[in-house]
Design a protein that fits this description.
4 helices, 14-stranded mixed beta sheet, 22 strands, alpha/beta, 391 residues
């Protein structure tokens, strides 16, 4: 992942934001930390935190803020934590000479991101996590030179075309844990490398991904996809995660010509067709492709016809037919993940179903109950394995 160093700095900063509850002033150590905006006396600071993660101490200290009163030409790091109840528009709209490493607003009240609330400048990591954002006005962030943008833990339901940055430097966009139902085509810049849309309400991405020719990581877990988005143009993908959705089947050519793939996670869907395994991209790379169809509804799979020589196939938690699951060709080249093997050998989770013992063809509700019981039994014992089943 890009910019790990910048993100690690953020963790250190959050830990250092404790301020004694009875003292209202600024503290200087690794970074200057102020209780309120009124406490800021030095206007030439390079690194500044305003506010605190200690919510109980500062419930009544949120105020109206204009960012051009806080940001200076020398500033590299600014964090504002639970101090903004209203964000005013800046008088100076553009700061061509400001190049920040980190700009973080967390726990504030900013229901709508509007044009001129944030001065146009260069920022490596721009985090607007957990600020009750419901809407981003078209043009509000369009011209900002941002590399890594995080809009997680807000209340966004729609991303309009022209709302997000279109800078050629844009590399990472994370919009996790919102209420997203629609992203308009053209909203994302073609230079994007990483897109994370976990934990939303997305059912489709019609034409949204078509121009992301350089995308390397796509994460769509915990949404409502019933079909896999079109990935045809994404030849440089390394990681695809569409786990915990409502996928029923995967087209046989979904990952065709993606020779750089490292991980495909389709865990916890409703997939009952394994045809895609016969058409996985073949590569002689040293690192095998990790392909997870765990916790789906596969009943059987013809492994002899699958291209699994350079694939670690994760298949635990499927509804295998016990009669056919016992038969594995001796000449098959198949790699299992260590965690999958531990699951099989634990003796504590079901491996297959004896379909000959009952007739479920006319009783859908009973079949769903059996599937739920089967999967719940595996999840309840997952902690005993003690390792990551996919990565």
């Amino acid at each position: 992942m890009l910019f790990k160093q910048v993100q690690s700095v953020f963790i250190i900063l959050v830990i250092s934001t404790y301020i004694p509850p009875l003292v209202s002033r600024c503290h200087s150590s690794y970074i200057t930390t102020c209780d309120t905006f009124e406490d800021i006396k030095n206007k030439n600071l390079k690194e500044l935190i305003v506010g605190s993660t200690q919510l109980s101490y500062y419930k009544n200290k949120m105020t109206t803020v204009r960012l051009d009163d806080v940001i200076t030409t020398k500033m590299k790091i600014l964090m504002i934590i639970r101090r903004i109840k209203h964000l005013e528009k800046c008088k100076l709209k553009k700061y061509s000479s400001i190049h920040m490493d980190l700009l973080i607003l967390y726990g504030n009240v900013i229901p709508k991101i509007q044009i001129s609330q944030f001065p146009i400048m260069s920022v490596k990591k721009f985090s607007l996590v957990h600020n009750k954002i419901q809407e981003i006005e078209v043009g509000a962030l369009r011209n900002h030179r941002i590399i890594d943008l995080d809009l997680s833990e807000n209340q966004l339901s729609r991303i309009k075309n022209g709302a997000l940055p279109v800078s050629k430097f844009m590399r990472i966009i994370t919009i996790k844990s919102n209420e997203l139902e629609l992203i308009e085509p053209g909203s994302l810049h073609p230079h994007l490398r990483v897109l994370n849309l976990d934990q939303n309400k997305l059912k489709h991405l019609n034409n949204v991904l078509d121009n992301l020719l350089k995308l390397e990581e796509l994460t769509l877990s915990h949404n409502k996809f019933s079909t896999l988005p079109n990935l045809t143009n994404l030849k440089y993908l390394k990681i695809v995660d569409v786990s915990f959705n409502e996928l029923v089947s995967i087209k046989y050519d979904s990952f065709k010509h993606m020779n750089l793939l490292q991980v495909v996670n389709l865990e916890s869907n409703k997939i009952c067709n394994s045809e895609v395994l016969q058409h996985l991209p073949v590569s002689t790379r040293r690192r095998p492709l990790i392909f997870s169809l765990a916790m789906n509804r596969l009943k059987q799979v013809n492994l002899e016809q699958c291209r699994l020589k350079y694939v670690i196939f994760i298949r635990y938690g499927n509804l295998w037919d016990c009669e056919k699951a016992r038969v594995i060709p001796l000449n098959l080249t198949l790699q299992e993940s260590r965690c999958s093997l531990e699951y099989y050998s634990s003796g504590q989770v079901p491996y297959c179903i004896d379909y000959s013992s009952f007739n479920l063809s006319s009783n859908t509700s009973q079949w769903e109950k059996i599937i739920k019981k089967f999967h719940d039994s595996i999840r309840e014992n997952s902690e005993k394995i003690g390792c990551d089943l996919v990565y």
